[in-house]
Design goal:
One of its GO terms (molecular function) is hydrolase activity. Pfam families: Abhydrolase_1. This is Alpha/beta hydrolase. It is a single chain. With 290 residues, the protein is α/β, with parallel strands linked by helices. It has one domain: Rossmann fold, CATH 3.40.50. It is built from nine helices and ten strands. An eight-stranded mixed beta sheet has the order 1-2-4-3-5-6-9-10, sandwiched between helices. Helix 1 links the parallel strand 3 and strand 4. The chain is globular, with a radius of gyration of 19 Å. It starts with a strand and ends in a 7-residue tail after the last helix.
Length: 290
C-alpha cells in the first residue's frame, strides 16, 4: 500500500492505495468506521488488489486526514459531501463502494443520492443512516449541546491523553474492541502520533460529541429505497444483532443480499478471507457496462 491524498474544497483527505494499479480495473472506494482509519482495510488489500483499483480513505479528523474547522462537529451528511468530492476526482463513471460501520451508513446514503455513480455497495456491519422517533428530537438536541459543552470544558482543563509507548496504545485499543493485537496493529499505527516522548491519538476529540439530531424512520426508508445498485450486507456472527436478517432496513432496498461471516463488529478484520471472497463473488455478477 502507498499513501495518496484527495484535495477537497475545504481540506485534504489522506488515503491508502496500491503501489501499482491497472487502469482497466474498476475502482473500489473503502470507507472506515468511527474512530478507525484507512488501515482498517489493510488485511483486505492483498486479496482485493488483483480485482480492483483500491482507495481507502481517512475521514476528516481520522488517521492522516485534516480535521474539520474549529466550529464544525462532524455532521453525518458532511461525510456524504466529502465522498462525492472524492468520486468527482476519480475520472470514472461508476465505482464500487465498501463501507464498514459509519462508512457503511455514508456509503448507502451516497448511493441513494447519487445512484448514477455507484456500481455496487458492500455494507459491513452497517445499513441505513441512523434514525429515531421524532419525539426524541428535543432530548437529542439537549444531549448534543451538552456533549459539546463537556468537550469544551474538558479541552480547556485537560491536556491530550499521553501514552508512554505504542504498545500501551495498542493494548488500550485491544481492550476496547476485544480483538487480537495483530488485527488492530495497522489501525493503531495509523491512529497515533509521537510527540516529545509520548504517543497521542490522532483522531479529533470532537468526534465523541453527540449528534444534535437524527432523521426519522420515514426519511431513512425513503433514502434506502432510492438505492438503485445491488447491495451486499456483510455481518459478523457476533456483530450487531439488529443488522441481521430481521432488520427492517433489509426490506427497504430493492436488490440486497446478506452474508454472515465469523467475527463481531470488526468481522472484516477477523475473517478477511471470507469477506474478500464474498466481495469478489458479489461484484462478479454486476454488469459494469450497465
Amino acid at each position: 500500500m502507498k499513501e495518496t491524498a484527495f484535495q477537497l474544497a475545504e481540506r485534504q483527505l489522506a488515503a491508502l492505495t496500491v503501489a501499482k494499479t491497472d487502469a482497466e480495473k474498476p475502482i473500489m472506494l473503502m470507507l472506515h468506521g468511527w474512530q478507525d482509519n484507512a488501515a482498517s482495510f489493510s488485511h483486505l488489500f492483498p486479496q482485493l488488489q488483483d480485482h480492483y483499483r483500491l482507495y481507502a480513505l481517512d475521514w476528516p479528523g481520522h488517521g492522516y486526514s485534516e480535521r474539520r474547522d474549529a466550529d464544525n462537529y462532524y455532521h453525518f451528511f458532511d461525510y456524504v459531501d466529502d465522498l462525492h468530492q472524492v468520486v468527482l476526482q476519480l475520472n470514472t463513471n461508476k465505482v464500487y463502494v465498501v463501507g464498514h460501520s459509519l462508512g457503511a451508513l455514508v456509503a448507502s446514503t451516497y448511493a441513494a443520492a447519487f445512484p448514477e455513480n455507484v456500481l455496487g455497495l458492500v455494507l459491513i456491519e452497517g445499513l441505513s443512516p441512523l434514525y429515531e422517533a421524532p419525539e426524541n428530537t428535543a432530548q437529542r438536541l439537549r444531549q448534543g449541546i451538552l456533549s459539546r459543552q463537556r468537550y469544551r470544558q474538558r479541552s480547556q482543563r485537560k491536556p491530550r491523553r499521553k501514552m508512554v509507548s505504542f504498545e500501551q496504545a495498542l493494548m488500550l485499543r485491544c481492550q476496547v474492541n476485544q480483538l487480537d493485537e495483530a488485527l488492530l496493529r495497522p489501525i493503531v499505527k495509523r491512529g497515533v502520533e509521537y510527540i516529545e516522548g509520548g504517543y497521542y491519538w490522532r483522531h479529533d476529540e470532537r468526534l465523541r460529541c453527540d449528534s444534535l439530531y437524527r432523521i426519522a424512520q420515514e426519511h431513512a426508508q425513503a433514502t434506502m429505497s432510492a438505492i438503485a445498485c445491488p447491495v451486499l450486507s456483510i455481518v459478523g456472527e457476533h456483530g450487531f444483532p439488529r443488522l441481521q436478517q430481521r432488520a427492517p432496513e433489509l426490506g427497504w432496498v430493492k436488490n440486497i443480499q446478506q452474508q454472515r461471516v465469523e467475527g463481531g463488529h470488526h468481522c472484516h478484520l477477523e475473517s478477511p478471507q471470507a469477506v474478500c471472497d464474498s466481495i469478489v463473488a458479489f461484484t462478479s455478477k454486476i454488469d459494469i457496462q450497465s
